[in-house]
Amino acid sequence: MKSLTWKLHLKSSPVRVFYFLNTDWGRKQFWAENAQQQGDQIAFEFSNGQKHTAHILEAKAPDIFKVEYFNSLVSFELAADGSGGTDLVLQSTNIPHADYQQTYAGWLSVLLALKAACDFRVDLRNHDPARTWDQLYVDN
Fold it and tell me: What superfamily does domain 2-123 belong to in CATH?
């Protein structure tokens, strides 16, 4: 098993970033076509038609959001940067070797979409089922 870490700086506050991670509306702005939460589960639906149920392991506003996601453990740690923004650290652990390259690139895509949506109210995704990650599009 492998792990990875990505860091991202956002001009938005930790409260705002946490809202994007921890609400159905927020996740729909950058992460998935739909992401409905019931209890500690999130039913994700992606533009390629794939569905996945993630389990929330911890949601402590505005600092920590942890999920079990596609068989790996993912932690978003948020810290105020002292200027009104957020330093985010994403750690994904327990990644199968065969999935590492796609997971590594996938989180980069998700994080940059989060920054665009949260900081600039821009959706970088194309929402086209014929142009998804499966066809090597990074803007799905």
Answer: START domain (3.30.530.20)
